[in-house]
Amino acid sequence: MRIVFLGLLLLISQFAVPALVHSAPLPPAPPIPAAASVNARTYGSISAAISAAHGKTLVISDLQKLSGDLVIPSDVSLSIAKGGAIVNPAKYTVTIAGPFTAGLYKVFEGFRQGDIHFIDGSVKEVSPQWWGENSAASINKAINAFPKVFCPPGLYLIESEVLLNSNTHLRGVRGKTVFQRPRGVRYTGKNIAGVTYADPFMIGFYTYGSGNYSARTNVTVEGITVDGNSYNSTDSGRMAGIYLHSGSHLSVIDCEVKNLGRTADFVLSIGIAFSWVKDGVIKKCQSHDNSGDGINVFAFNQDVVVTENETYRNGVAGIEVEGRLGTSYNLPRNKRIVVARNYTHDNAGVPWGAGGSYGHGILVTWSDDVVVSDNVVSANTIWIGAITVMGSTNIVIRNNSITGNLSASPVDPTGYGIGIFAQYDVYGDNGVNRNINIANNSILNNRNGIFVRDAQDVSIVGNTIEGMATKSDGIIYEKGAVGKKLEVKGNVVKVRPGSSTIGIKGTREDVTITNNTFPD
């Protein structure tokens, strides 16, 4: 028995010992040998250095002058050290197919826009510092070299328009990457057939003619602060900070636009503008202290979302969805626009002489299929309404908080929380609002509540209206020339003595008023 037991111990020990050995710490792995490198300065030319650098890293640490077009093949990694650069003495081009590295310093000397081309996979993104100073010229060279451009924090003096191509992703760090308009610089704009002057911009693109959705595609501007420097010096006196005209799948994300024009002047410079855009997004941006609109979705846009933005201290509207304005020209209507979860406040109308000012929190004109929901609209100095609709069809205004907005006009003190207003006698059928749904909005401490004129198929349901001025209106309906079919249902309207709760001006045909409450 003792022999059997000792044999068993011996058998167990044969398995236990290897287990103890494997639980000990492993020795560190040997370092990976550094890749072999070739320094261009040891060769007669950069072309000769490339021939010796296949499968290696080509280092440029001095000035390398081109003698012809240059291609860096995919099996050569190019690294340009500070103090090194590729110099273009003529009109040569460089194509970089292999991995590329450089710091934030100038590495390309004497190159025109379009002379350098990075192949996909050679870099993650390019930076304008590789072309020199922080300027629009360097940014445009970077955009034309590779579609993904990162502008690191710093001040960039934008002496001319930054022009975006299809597939461009222009990225910075909001509040730290600042594109500033130098004082005294005149942006030229473009002359277009049928229009005397096309307003210039700081970042964007403009397509001549009537516009189309295929001119540019897949463009994103992200994390850029645009500073107009509170200076008017254009031929027309107006401009835009970011303006994307004619394209599809276009986005402006987490940008800030400020100080375009002077808010004391009637020049209507716009922070962020879309025109002829399909499938567009303006999201998480700030637009403030501009002389015109903070954000304007202008003319023939389709499927555009404006969300989670803040607009304030602009001269006209915080956010405008503008299909057509005035009688002198007609523009195609916007369709399927969503304005949701924005905060628009303290926008004040620019003066119109003794007649008051023209201002709105959110303005929708001559557009179709628009949803305005879950916005906070407060402390704006307004003309008709904090949220105003004119000549539009299939409009939903719901779940908005509309607070403390004041009338701007001394001669026509309207100042409604929501104003559905048009002028059939001036604009004909284009002046009629149709199929308007106003539901579940909180309208507090404005001069008046809700105003509707020249509208058809309107429902005002489940809104709360209170805290208005003395001798104010809760809900007012003016039939006008063509108004018909109004439902007012389930609203809470609390007014002060001497004010009206629900007023109907004109005939009451097709008007249904039910289940509303009027607390003392």
TrEMBL record:
<dbReference type="InterPro" id="IPR011050">
    <property type="entry name" value="Pectin_lyase_fold/virulence"/>
</dbReference>
<dbReference type="Pfam" id="PF13229">
    <property type="entry name" value="Beta_helix"/>
</dbReference>
<feature type="signal peptide">
    <location>
        <begin position="1"/>
        <end position="23"/>
    </location>
</feature>
<dbReference type="InterPro" id="IPR006626">
    <property type="entry name" value="PbH1"/>
</dbReference>
<dbReference type="InterPro" id="IPR039448">
    <property type="entry name" value="Beta_helix"/>
</dbReference>
<feature type="domain" description="Periplasmic copper-binding protein NosD beta helix">
    <location>
        <begin position="359"/>
        <end position="476"/>
    </location>
</feature>
<keyword id="KW-0732">Signal</keyword>
<protein>
    <submittedName>
        <fullName>Right-handed parallel beta-helix repeat-containing protein</fullName>
    </submittedName>
</protein>
<keyword id="KW-0677">Repeat</keyword>
<feature type="domain" description="Right handed beta helix">
    <location>
        <begin position="219"/>
        <end position="323"/>
    </location>
</feature>
<dbReference type="InterPro" id="IPR051550">
    <property type="entry name" value="SCF-Subunits/Alg-Epimerases"/>
</dbReference>
<dbReference type="InterPro" id="IPR007742">
    <property type="entry name" value="NosD_dom"/>
</dbReference>
<dbReference type="Pfam" id="PF05048">
    <property type="entry name" value="NosD"/>
</dbReference>
<dbReference type="InterPro" id="IPR012334">
    <property type="entry name" value="Pectin_lyas_fold"/>
</dbReference>
